[in-house]
Design goal:
2 copies of one chain form a homodimer.
Chain A: H1 7-11, H2 26-46, H3 53-60, H4 64-71, H5 74-95, H6 106-123, H7 125-133, H8 138-141, H9 143-159, H10 165-173, H11 178-186, H12 191-206
Helix pairs in contact in A: 2-3, 5-6, 5-7, 6-9, 6-12, 7-11, 9-10
The structure holds a DNA duplex.
GO molecular function, one term (chains A, B): DNA-binding transcription factor activity
Pfam families (chains A, B): TetR_N
Region (Disordered) (chains A, B): 1-26
DNA sequence: GGCTCTAGCGGACTACAGTCCGTCTTATGA
DNA sequence: TCATAAGACGGACTGTAGTCCGCTAGAGCC
């Protein structure tokens, strides 16, 4: 379990907040790590949706209130656990080699992103489900969603300026919803088919 | 409250089921109508998400168990309430005048459907939210989703046979998810902007 | 080291979704 | 009209998310 999920990661879920970032107290930090570790362990062993927050609190040896104050709700905990994996992808997009990183044509970068995201999503569907559906509209409030959105909007603007880039970016992200992905996989769509199909759609849409 | 939501409408939520369709018992019918009426009344008065199923049962003067046996869960009740409105759209698609009904070019029919659906969605977002998100993957199990999907897949096949029509139809439906729609509206997207943007995307994607 | 005050702690509490099963109602057919 | 069984009824029960608030412990200051 990485230690990178500080309070700033949690606040990432909300719209930008100002204020003095007080240092994290020692007991708070200890408990935060315990909870994340416990959640990781129980999720792996029993499956995400079979683990209650009471169970996680018990396993971590903390009170239930502690879990909620720290992570807000079930979605928040899932987000914290996904943070690390998503940050890898974020880094590759911002500073990695093309086509994921800068330097390739916009369309290729869109395709590379969508494909990479599908891989990530497929590996952690259950966690994504929790982070997106545990509360209404959770997906769109998460910091990383907004990051992906800005990235795509920027590329759409370059590739096809006649489209409404802001809106189109949301539309491109919509098929990456965890519940749709899980449903498609259950209907027998192989991951490769989804990737190929997604690439074809993105190219048809953005190639002029 | 229409009386068209018989047991067959409820079974529409599940994959096709065979078996003898026994006639609905009189008390069952009476209670079903009472529950739908009560739900409609309370939802209108207090807002969908502020009404518990206990409250609906109480208002309808039936036991809680009755509500659940009849509708399965919260999503099922929402689906039953939406049924009527969706059936109108279904009828227009199957037998109405073009471009919604048969007779227009495939691309125009896709655009007409997406636009009409956005209107419907916008009018009943709260109910759609419930019907899609009350349980995991509920949206994709609903009978009407599969109907919309088949409709679009058919049109995609005609408009752009090189695409994976089955997959593409799901992708076209993804941006119509209730939670995304609500989030976009909250971010200040006007309904007209969403319609215009959606049309542009559909045409860019499907026009060869 | 001791004081103070703020942030954090934790578990009892509430509210709600969904289940279960003993009881009662309706449809049928003799 | 009555007997019977299929199926509906309903409310007590369970499990979980999320809240609340009196209590505790850490951090900075003297």
């Amino acid at each position: 379990m990485s230690d990178s999920n500080g309070p700033q990661s949690v606040s990432q879920r909300e719209l930008p907040v100002v204020g003095t970032p007080r240092p994290e107290r020692a007991d708070a930090r200890r408990n935060r790590l315990r909870v994340l570790e416990a959640a990781d362990r129980l999720f792996t062993e029993y499956g995400v949706k079979n683990v209650s927050l009471d169970a996680i609190a018990a396993e971590a040896g903390v009170g239930k209130g502690t879990v909620f104050r720290r992570f807000g709700d079930r979605a928040g905990l899932a987000v914290a656990l996904l943070d690390e994996r998503e940050q890898e992808l974020q880094a590759k997009i911002l500073t990695g080699p093309p086509p994921l990183g800068p330097g390739a044509p916009a369309v290729d970068r869109v395709v590379a992103f969508l494909t990479a995201y599908l891989d990530l999503l497929d590996r952690h569907v259950e966690l994504f489900m929790d982070s997106e559906n545990a509360s209404d509209g959770a997906r769109y409030r998460i910091g990383s969603y907004n990051l992906w959105h800005r990235h795509l909007a920027h590329l759409v603007e370059q590739a096809r300026p006649t489209l409404d880039a802001d809106h189109t970016a949301h539309v491109l992200l919509a098929p990456l919803a965890a519940d749709l992905h899980q449903s498609l996989r259950n209907r027998g769509f192989a991951l490769d088919r989804l990737k190929t199909g997604t690439e074809a759609i993105a190219r048809a849409l953005l190639t002029t």
